[in-house]
Design a protein that fits this description.
Elements (H helix, E strand, L loop, with lengths): L2 H28 L28 E4 L5 E6 L4 E4 L7 E3 L15 E2 L8 E3 L16 E3 L15 E3 L7 E4 L6 E4 L7 E3 L15 E2 L8 E3 L16 E3 L41 E3 L6 E2 L2 E2 L2 E3 L22 E5 L5 E5 L8 E3 L5
């Protein structure tokens, strides 16, 4: 009753031995030839692929459709996933990793290498700054939605002159627009603002600082008068097309010329410590000395003068003069008299 079972077991055992022997024989005698394993294969030891000659496709893994998805390139010592590799390790398609660490540069958007890290394939225009692995060139756009901290220079623009420059390394931090700044804030070119407010002096057409505000770079000759931020020195010309009100003294070391057709009036006293010239720009001279006052008429005609009070005045016009002896005398014009009258009666 047990003989058939014993015979069946002997046949199975002999078949198993034959298959194992054949498998070993094939690997021992035909390992260098092309082989196909139709079922799973595993090893608990080392798996070594050592081709007889190097090839760009020494090792290939294919899917059921026969499409290669893994390449081993023994010619160039490269591994490729998803495509034939052009670098040491290359992945065609999306790849993810818990961490990405590299001891050299990071190249994103291209496979060529540079001495510095970069996003894109453009090359730097600032080889004095962008030189090593921890330098980064971004040839595309950059968006930062949170805080950005810069401990060194910030430069925006192309060429030798930046459009925007920040220098946080100086003792006094500096910002420049259109230039490398020499002051705290400097703009080269036209600038506009709704308001301009400064707690200190205003310096226009120069960057040197003085205690008073000024247009130009000249220094004041009246240091006792101009010594604070609310004092102003104008070293060029000044034009006022509207009204000008001066509550203090008006001091002029040059000529004071009123040459418009408009009327000019002074509510207070007008005191001149030098000559007065009306109707001309240059005073005449008498005996080498200028006249105290000179009135010049238009063209070659006789100069006309008007001296009088208001329409209801009856005192007439009176001039106070000095005689050749130094005494005061007074000249009046009486109605109906052809010549003026001189007397010692005071004008007022």
């Amino acid at each position: 009753m047990n003989k058939p079972k014993g015979l069946l077991g002997s046949i199975v055992s002999m078949t198993t031995v034959f298959v194992v022997f054949s498998f070993v024989f094939v690997f021992a005698l035909g390992a260098n030839a092309a082989s196909t394993v139709g079922t799973n294969m595993s090893t608990t030891g080392t798996f070594l692929v050592n081709p007889a000659s190097n090839s760009a496709t020494s090792v290939r893994f294919q899917n059921a459709a026969g499409t290669n998805y893994f390449f081993g390139d023994s010619t160039n010592s490269r591994i490729g996933i998803g495509g034939a590799p052009q670098t040491v390790f290359e992945v065609q398609g999306t790849a993810s990793a818990s961490y990405l660490m590299t001891a050299n540069t990071l190249q994103v958007g291209g496979v060529s290498s540079a001495a510095y890290s970069r996003f894109g394939t453009a090359t730097t225009g600032y080889t004095n700054f962008i030189t090593t692995t921890n330098d980064l060139l971004i040839s595309g756009d950059l968006e930062v939605d949170a805080t950005a901290q810069f401990d060194s220079f910030i430069r925006a623009g192309t060429g030798t002159t930046p459009a925007f420059f920040v220098d946080p390394t100086a003792t006094v931090k500096r910002v420049g627009i259109g230039t490398l700044p020499g002051t705290t804030f400097e703009v080269q070119g036209t600038a506009s603002a709704s308001y301009l407010k400064t707690a200190n002096s205003l310096q226009v057409a120069g960057i040197a600082t003085v205690a008073y505000s000024r247009f130009g770079t000249n220094t004041t000759g009246t240091t006792g008068e101009l010594d604070a931020a609310n004092d102003l020195l104008i070293s060029g010309a000044l034009e006022v097309d509207g009204k000008a009100s001066i509550a203090g003294n008006l001091q002029s070391s040059g000529r004071f010329i009123l040459d418009t057709a408009a009327s000019h009036s002074f509510v207070g006293d007008l005191i001149l410590t030098s000559q007065l010239t009306v109707g001309a720009t240059t005073a005449s001279a008498s005996g080498g000395a200028g006249y105290t006052a000179q009135f010049v008429g238009p063209g070659t005609g006789t100069a006309s003068f008007y001296f009088g009070g208001n329409d209801s005045a009856t005192s007439g016009t009176c001039f106070q003069l000095k005689s050749t002896t130094g005494a005061w005398i007074y000249m009046r014009f009486y109605q109906g008299v052809a010549t003026p009258t001189l007397s010692t009666i005071r004008c007022h």
